[in-house]
Structures are given as C-alpha cells and as structure tokens.
Amino acid sequence: MELPIAESWKIKMVEPIRKSTREEREEWLKEAHYNVFQLKSEQVYIDCITDSGTGSMSDRQWAAMMMGDESYAGARSFFRLKDTITGLTGFEYVIPTHQGRAAENVLFSHLVKAGDIVPGNSHFDTTKGHIESRKATALDCTVDEARDTQLELPFKGNVDLGKLEAALKEHGDRIPFIIVTITNNTAGGQPVSMENLRGVRALADKYGKRVVLDSARFAENAYFIKTREAGYADMTIKQITREIFDLADAMTMSAKKDGIVNMGGFIATRHEDWYEGAKRFCIPFEGYLTYGGMNGRDMEALAVGLDENTEFDNLDTRIRQVQYLAARLDEFGIPYQRPAGGHAIFVDASKVLTHVPKEEFPAQTLTVELYREAGIRGCEIGYILADRDPVTRENRFGGLDLLRLAIPRRVYTNNHMDVIAVALKNVFDRRESITRGVRIFWEAELMRHFTVKLEPAK
Ligand SMILES: *Cc1c(COP(=O)(O)O)cnc(C)c1O
User: Fold this and answer.
1) Which of 55, 133, 287, 335 is the most buried (most CB within 10 A)?
2) Among protein residues, the one whose CA lies closest to atom 8 of ligand 1
3) Domains recognised in the chain with CATH numbers
4) What distance in Å separates the CA atoms of residue 110 and residue 177, rounded to the nearest whole number?
5) What number does the ligand 1 atom closest to the CA of 265 have?
6) Per-10-residue mean pLDDT for the chain, 458 residues long?
7) Is the CB–ligand 1 distance for residue 101 below 6 Å?
8) What distance in angstroms lies between residue 455's CA and the mean position of ligand 1's atoms?
9) CB 319 within 8 A of CB 228
C-alpha cells in the first residue's frame, strides 16, 4: 500500500485556543459592529482571517533571530537577507520595508503619478489603494475565466494578454509599468502560468515597459507551475522561482506571506535607476536603507523563511492542506472558487446566500454567519472590500463576492479543517432561511473593510 503524505514538520511548541458559546459570540458580534476585523483574537476559535504574518516560524528561524545584527547601518543581517533574495531572484538591489504595502508606497512614490494607468491582473487592495490615492488607475486585465468560480482551469490568475495589449496601445505614455500579482489573491489565490508571464514580458518589451511582480505568494505560484504546467515537473521550486523573476524587472514583497515571518517586506529590482528613485522614499517613510522598517533579527528570520519556503516539501504540505479543506467542502456541495487556491478557499457567497441582495453584502453576511456558528473567523473579499468607485462614489458590485478562509502556514491541523468544513455546512444547510444581510452605517473613504461599521439589515 502506498504511504499517505503527512506534514513535512513536527510540532515543537503549541498555543492554546478556546471555544466560546453562541451567546458570547452574538454579544461580541454586536460590539464589533458585525465587522470581524473588530473582534479580539481571544474571541476567535479558529482564525482564518488571513495567512498574512500568522504563520509559525521554524526552529531554524527562531535560532536565526538570535544572530540578528541590530546595527543602524550596514548590518550583517541586511546583507544575509539581500544575498538570499539576490540568490533566489537575480535582483541585485534590495530595500527592506516594514511590510508589503510599504514596499508599494516606497516604489510607487517614485513611479506613479496622477493620471497614470497601471495594468496587470487583479491588483491587491493595498496595491490598488496606493495607485488610486495617487489619482492613478489600476486597470484589471485578468482573464475573464477567473470570474466564473465553477470553471476548473489550472491558471485562473493569468493576465488576459489581449486586454493588456489593448491597454498598452491605448494608454502608452500613461503606463509607468505593468504589475502582475503572483498568485492572484483577489481572483482567489489563483496562480499565473510561466507561459503567461512570458507573454507579459513579450508585450512589455514590445511597448518598452517594465514589469513588477507583486510577489507575496511567489513560492506557492512556483509550486503550481511545477505541479500543473508542462515542462516544469522535474525542476526544483528554486529553479522555477528564478525563471519567474528572470521575466521581471522588480518585485514588491509582503514577507508575511511566503517569507513565513510575522512582519516584513521588501522591494527588489535589477535596475539601478529604480533603486535610486525608491531610495529617496525609503529613508523618510521606512528608515535607513539597510533596515528600512525591519529589525536585524527579523531580516535573519526572513532569510531563513525564504529559503525554507522555496523547498517543495514545505509547499506541498501547505497546498495539500488547503486542498484537503476543499475536498471536504466538495463533499457538502459548497461552492468555492475552483480549483482551490494556494493559500485559501474562497467560498462563492453569491451562490450560497442567494436571497441576500448584493446591496446587503452576501459575503460579509456569510462571514458573520460562520463566526456566529462556530467562532471561525474568515474574511470578506467582496463588495465591501471593493470600496466605492473613486469618481462616482458608487459601491462597486462588478467583481466577485467571496468569503475567504485563509489558512495560516504551519499553524492548524486537518482536524481544524474538519471543524471549518462542518461549521460551513451547518450554515449552508440553513441558507434558505437567511434572507437579509447587513447595511453600512459608517465607513472610511479608502480601504473601508478594516473599520466599516455594520448592522443587520431590516
Ligand atoms: C498582503 C499583500 C500585499 C500587502 O502586503 P502587507 O504585508 O499586508 O502590507 C500586497 N499584495 C498582495 C498580493 C498581498 O497578498
């Protein structure tokens, strides 16, 4: 009999978690204005709000932290991190930042100005925020197939090259660069193929543009290329990673994802002019160039995390756990963005809560119901997250309305996955009785989902 595949690690330290009662959760929901970002973590049993900064570091990472060099300038830890990044990506210039959005802020301060258009696949919310706050436009050129959650395709995160070329033709001078997000978080953690990245590169070259990779989950993307794209099965994750970045000019990175650290990020590029430009903004916004928002010890942990998470077994364990949860949802007939993404399951709320009108935010309603059911915290990736159109100030109902269950790296076991699946089934079973959603009574102008205040719609 063939042996099953188990986790590629064992557990050395644990953190207790606690269940709550339905009455407690009802009260907490009210206090949180039906926004799960406003809950205290002690009020949560299984936390799938994000996979960002919530992973478990390895013993090697903790050991590396003791070697942190906290020198203000020229720290050894910076060079260790830089050498690791250069080794993986080929990018010679590295600027550490305190997290991914800070990398965007620093790089875009140099590159993006009012009236610009930045095309790519789906822009992550902070990426879009940093573009739109500069009065520029984030143009989503994702393949149309990504919008059909039930379509089973290997690379639903891809850029539609036709749409991209049309944008390049039409807006030429107003495009400072192309940005491709790997994996495509907004489209459901869906990967981008190497073939597609080559297509983007060819168009970029044809129109004289540079390509930035928003690389938060580049290692998971490399895993999907290895396991799904012809010609890559025998290559290592590190070889595939290198091939990915050979097709790009720069990257912004949220190290809280595939770096498996709790905080951190960076910019890396092969172009001295971009480095020189970004440097001017790193110093006032983040800090001096050899720490830019990170501790020496955190740069050490990140260097190890990047190395570990570009090994196949670590990624295989992770992606298989997400696929395990997906298989349980299949058993119950619960619709989600297919195939399962790299870091999360995205439940298609519009197909579950069919009686809740879009004006009452079905995915947010489902997020609240799942918490109410079992203390499981997911996250709305839908109409609330989509913010309002910056010009018309209307809600943007054009995209998908999803409940994301993000799985932290190396944190939960498959027993936790079973609890999530059954809790969701219980909500699914009473979906016909859920007819009203939530309404907004207070919201911020930008990135409203973090602080929005809601109440049950009546
Ligand atoms: C998380 C994320 C970011 C922003 O990074 P932070 O570390 O949260 O600031 C940018 N892009 C993508 C694709 C992300 O997943």
Assistant:
1) 55
2) 100
3) 22-51+312-456 (3.90.1150.10), 59-308 (3.40.640.10)
4) 12
5) 7
6) 95 97 98 98 98 98 98 98 98 98 98 98 93 95 93 96 98 96 90 98 98 98 98 98 98 98 98 98 96 96 98 97 98 96 95 97 98 98 90 91 97 98 98 97 92 96
7) yes
8) 28
9) no
